[in-house]
Amino acid sequence: MDTDYDAIVIGGGSAGLSFARHAAGHGRKIALIERDKLGGTCVNRGCVPKKMLWTVADSLHRGTGLTRAGLLGPTPQVDMPRLCAARAAKLEDIRQSYRDKLHEAGVTLIEETAELTAPGEVTIQGQRLRAPRIVLATGGHPIKPDMPGAELACDSDEVLNWTELPRAMAIIGGGYIGCEMAAIHAAMGVRVTLVTDTERVLTEFSEKAALVGQANMQAQGIRIVTSCTPEAVRRGDDGLELVLDADSVLSVDKVVAATGRAPNLEALGDLKARVALTEKGVIRIDERFETSLPGLHAVGDCADRLPLTPVASSDGETLALQLFGDYRSPVDLRHVATSAYVLPPVAEVGQPSKEDIFEENTLSPLSAALRSDAAQDYWGLGGSEAAVTSVSLVAEGAHEAIGWAAQMLLHRPDRATIRRALGVHPSTSEEAMG
Ligand SMILES: Cc1cc2nc3c(=O)[nH]c(=O)nc-3n(C[C@H](O)[C@H](O)[C@H](O)COP(=O)(O)OP(=O)(O)OC[C@H]3O[C@@H](n4cnc5c(N)ncnc54)[C@H](O)[C@@H]3O)c2cc1C
Ligand SMILES: NC(=O)c1ccc[n+]([C@@H]2O[C@H](COP(=O)([O-])OP(=O)(O)OC[C@H]3O[C@@H](n4cnc5c(N)ncnc54)[C@H](O)[C@@H]3O)[C@@H](O)[C@H]2O)c1
């Protein structure tokens, strides 16, 4: 194996793969080191397996709620082993396509655990590799709360590998992962209670959008307990107990900790002390993704950006361009569309605060007249009449529409300009366009 490269990237997830392919595309000699499955979190234990489960949940949810429309009969059951097999085959296809693309690009793939042993030097299995640029793309892992019995709780990695469904589950944490797991499993027939320490769920979204999302989760049958930090998990007579306080205990089959993620920093080895972290504990970077150790860059979830796959991929490409092509600045996070896969999705672009929203509406879509759970839709525009800077949407298909809203915002439209295009009738985005 060669030992000298133009750049070595540690981590074969969305960020590392993107950097390696684009840097090699500029004629550079690149090594990518991955200790686990190629594709990282998104492909193996994140977006992709989650979205495949959500697809099933969405179909069940749309069908089973339509009792008022006369859609009757037994609820379809999910054959988990069959679903898991179909999903596993797709994940393997994706991993193989990444392997092929790295090969075509001429990237050296090394399947080992890497450690930074000196500036410009990475060690794998006692062998030293050198490059003037080292890129950390090591991603993150789920963290559990510091409480007695936390080890009895599953994290999202485990939930996405369940081959049978529990009858009842308690989820700790009301962020993206907690809410998505709640909506998906409730639709698949699991009795779900979600407990979070915040006043509402989805605090990364603007208030009204998140509250409509929360009401829809409740309409779906999910019990939501806010402003509560559970005290312990313990074994019960028949399953597990989540102790909320002295007076309330939830008896369930499974407890899931969806209480946040932390970056993977083991690759820094003894050099960790020389790499500055932010208050959130992720790696501090400048606009060239360079850390406080010259020549060491960081992209993706381990760095101080938004922990979303499109950001990780875009930043990997941007860094490759900055180092080996024409300089471009990192994508502005205000132009990143995002969606929580609840039912229906809560989607947003522009990262608005509650005060930013100047026009909004909560409405009942036509489907609500037919559904037993009467989910509500919502749209909100942020910024001002003169310059619209954010769009929020809660509606079926919101995760598809919000990407186009992000494109629209790039052109800095005023409110009157948005009214000059017409949406599809009947739809919720039509209402937002005015
Ligand atoms: C349940 C879940 C659902 C999600 N859903 C979405 C979604 O719908 N949309 C979205 O945009 N984002 C979603 N995300 C977030 C998204 O998955 C991450 O932002 C993205 O995967 C980060 O990519 P990354 O390359 O930074 O890190 P990762 O994909 O985590 O890759 C890091 C890689 O580095 C490797 N590594 C670490 N240390 C070493 C070492 N020392 N040596 C060698 N290799 C090492 C790891 O094995 C890993 O493969 C979700 C996340 C989770 C957990
Ligand atoms: N659809 C998507 O794009 C998607 C999906 C999943 C994850 N992600 C990414 O992954 C990141 C991590 O997601 P996450 O949901 O794990 O983390 P998070 O930090 O977004 O949410 C964790 C939640 O748990 C709560 N919490 C923490 N400790 C608690 C305790 N002891 N008791 C009760 N509540 C507690 C926090 O207040 C917070 O609301 C997200 O920020 C997002 O960027 C994105």
Number of domains: 3
Derived structural class: alpha/beta
Radius of gyration: 23 Å
Rounded average pLDDT: 96
- CATH fold-level assignment of the largest domain: FAD/NAD(P)-binding domain
Parts with pLDDT < 50 across at least 5 consecutive residues = none
Distance between the termini: 61 Å
Estimated share of beta-strand residues: 15-25%
Bound molecules: flavin-adenine dinucleotide, nicotinamide-adenine-dinucleotide
User: Number of helix segments?
Assistant: 11
For the biggest β-sheet, the strand order reads 3-2-1-7-17
What percent of the residues sit in helical stretches (DSSP H or I)? 25-40%
CATH homologous superfamily assignment of the largest domain:
FAD/NAD(P)-binding domain
